[in-house]
Amino acid sequence: MKGKLNLLLIIVAVALFFLAQCFFIVKEGQVAIKTRVSRIVGNDIQPGLHFKWPLLESKVIFDARLQTLDAEPENVLTKEKKELIVDYFVEWRIADTQKYWVSTRGIRSSAENIIAQIVTDDLRGEFAKRTVHEVVSEDRSEIMDVITRILSAEVKKQGMEVVDVRVKRVEFSDKIKDSVFRRMQAERKRVSDSLRAHGKEQKKAIIADTDRQVQIIIANANRDAEITRGQGDAEATRIYAEAFSKDEDFYRFQKSLDAYRHAFSDKGDTFITSPDSEFFRYFQDADKK
């Protein structure tokens, strides 16, 4: 009786094992193929529970989600034979599991090696058609679009689909960094010298205009002063003339007092003249009186 029970348990265990080998599960975000003696008998198997013959058939499950290839930076030459370092990434996914299995045996690194080789060749070809300025500032998006189209057509044969190719970084290699820096430095110096020279020209023009304005202002001031002085002298002459015409003796007397005041303004002055000189006429008249 005990032997029969053991045999039954063995039969149940074998049946369960056999049953487990008959089914496999494909999870969400995965895709699978079914092979029989290395020949594909089921392609693009979607998520769910699926049947296979144990021992005769096997399953291969792939990641169907979007994959990112972050490649190593590549050295490329531009149209002027300048060496640049280009760092890029590629987004791709499996499009045809049968072709993908045949070309890569389901190994992701093999698939990414195929993609990287195609991208590298295309990068070198596209960069070789353009100058550094075009690559850095103008045509980068165009280059990436061209490479995406070419790469999509190439990897489609291997059962893959390229979603996007983008450049993360483009920089000069160490070989030409110094020469580029010196050229940029010389260009900046040329621009600064030009601005400085232009500034000096403006300074000279401003100073010259200021000097001209100063001269004009001074000339106008001198002219107005001379006019005012002339008008004052004329007015003084008119007043003197009127005073002289009213009382000539008093006018002469006033002028003589002014002459005395100026002649004897300093006590140390010595004045030699004849006593009967016209200069002392009013003193003489005073003595007579």
Can you describe what's shown?
There is one protein chain. With about 290 residues, the protein is of the alpha+beta class. It folds into 4 domains: about 20-65; about 65-170, Tetrahydropterin Synthase, Chain A (2-Layer Sandwich); about 185-245; about 250-289, no CATH class. The chain has 8 helices and 9 strands. The chain has helices at about 1-20, 95-105, 110-125, 130-140, 140-155, 175-245, 250-265, 280-289; strands spanning about 25, 30-35, 40-45, 50, 55-65, 65-70, 75, 85-95, 160-170. Strands 6, 7, 8 and 9 form a 4-stranded antiparallel β-sheet that branches. Helix 3 (about 110-125) packs across helix 5, helix 4 crosses helix 5 and helix 6 (about 175-245) crosses helix 7. The N and C termini lie far apart (about 190 Å).
Q: Main traits of this protein?
A:
58% helix, 8 helices, 289 residues, three-stranded antiparallel β-sheet, alpha+beta, Tetrahydropterin Synthase, Chain A
Helix content: 55-70%
Mean pLDDT: 79
CATH architectural category of the largest domain: 2-Layer Sandwich
Q: What summary fits the major beta sheet?
A: 4 strands, antiparallel
Q: CATH topology of the largest domain, what is it called?
A: Tetrahydropterin Synthase, Chain A
CATH H-level homologous superfamily name of the largest domain: Band 7 domain
Count of strand segments: 9
Q: How are helices and strands ordered from N to C?
A: HEEEEEEEEHHHHEHHH
What is the alpha-carbon Rg in Å?
Answer: 56 Å
